[in-house]
Design a protein that fits this description.
Strand content: 5-15%
Structural class: alpha+beta
Order of helices and strands: HHEHHHHEEEEHEEEEE
Shape: globular
CATH class: Alpha Beta
Largest sheet: 7 strands, antiparallel
CATH architecture: Alpha-Beta Complex
Number of helices: 7
CATH topology: Cathepsin B, Chain A
Helix content: 10-25%
């Protein structure tokens, strides 16, 4: 009898300790997901030429041939029959606030890491038994190295997701929030009076010409309650979603947001001041090496008979519609439907 009570007591203590850790993690990471503006609330819109510093080399746009194409299973066909006229993952999974969280990549072409970590965070939450968190884009950007690409000059999002599968990612929020194991350390920069500057105290101090890739520190920031190894979360190998509208929709309906690469032209920046849905009309690419970009597709809809994809960008909440934008759907606008990748969290 005494032995039984001892076993029950030990088991109860272990459960309580586990719950405490979960609550502590939520307390540390459950920052205000409903924020309408970020730390750059005073920043001005990027000039037509300046936003190219946040793009990546064109070679990273195309999904590598060794990335497997998603096999069409019965569930995909069933989901295809349930496709709605409009869909928004933020409303479908309201507890998963990471879906609606707009990150800020700053003056670094790290969109591949930011979008991949963001999508992985969403799917961790959508697929129980995981709970809301933000996986660290810093951990991915700094540690994946040449396997993923070339740091602030770009990278392959499918390689980034494969890194998540084999090496895992720790938690980490944005530069301003500074929570989790490894938060983003590239400072937010804005375009003010013709120069990149820090907007925090109103003095607009000049930013460096470029930011170097952060060091791969395999340890959590001081004060975090777990060590680096304990904070790791893992995914499954990445896959390429067929370049077909219904296949992409079925994937989002069944599993959550996906990552997409596309070419950015001059008329993309500030297009929302002219029209609600982006369609490439004029301008080319002035960035040496190309103008690739990676975003997260979280839904779709139709407005004024124009079908569109609903996407989350990583240029802060001052850009676009609170950081989101819509792009024409069904015409492979700028290649956005040709290079869609995703991955699932490890069970």
């Amino acid at each position: 009898m005494n032995t039984f009570l001892l076993v029950v007591l030990v088991f109860s203590i272990s459960i309580a300790a586990e719950e405490l850790s979960r609550k502590e993690l939520l307390s540390l990471l459950n920052v205000n997901a409903s924020r309408s503006v970020d730390e750059s609330r005073n920043e001005e819109q990027l000039s037509p030429d300046s936003f190219t510093d946040m793009l990546m080399d064109a070679k990273f746009i195309k999904v590598p041939e060794d990335t497997p194409i998603l096999k069409i299973q019965r569930t995909n066909f069933l989901m295809a029959t349930k496709i709605r006229e409009s869909f928004d993952a933020r409303r479908e999974w309201p507890k998963c606030w990471s879906i609606g969280w707009i990150r800020q990549q700053s003056r670094c072409g790290s969109c591949w890491a930011v979008a991949a970590a963001s999508m992985a965070s969403d799917r961790m939450c959508i697929n129980a038994p995981y709970y809301p968190m933000m996986l660290s884009s810093e951990d991915l950007l700094s540690c994946c190295g040449s396997y993923c690409g070339n740091g602030c000059s770009g990278g392959w999002p499918d390689k980034a997701l494969n890194w998540w599968a084999t090496n895992g990612l720790v938690t980490g929020t944005d530069y301003s929030d500074h929570q989790g194991c490894r938060p983003y350390t590239v400072p937010t920069c804005s375009w003010h009076n013709g120069v990149y500057s820090f907007p925090y105290d109103g003095t607009y101090r000049a930013c460096p010409e470029t930011f170097s890739v952060p060091q791969c520190y395999q340890q959590c920031q001081n004060g975090y309650f777990r060590n680096y190894t304990q904070d790791k979360y893992y995914g499954q190998p990445a896959y390429h979603v067929r370049p077909d509208v219904s296949a992409i929709q079925a994937e989002i309906l069944e599993h959550g947001p996906v990552v997409a690469t596309f070419t950015v032209y001059e008329d993309f920046n500030n297009f929302y001041k002219r029209e609600p849905i982006y369609q490439h009309r004029s301008g080319g690419c002035k960035r040496p090496g190309g103008c690739g970009h990676v975003v997260k597709i979280i839904g779709w809809g139709v407005e004024n008979q124009i079908p569109y994809w609903l996407c989350a960008n990583s240029w802060g909440t001052q850009w676009g519609d609170g950081g989101f934008f819509r792009i024409r759907r069904g015409t492979n606008e700028c290649g956005i439907e040709a290079n869609v990748v995703a991955a699932m969290p490890r069970k």
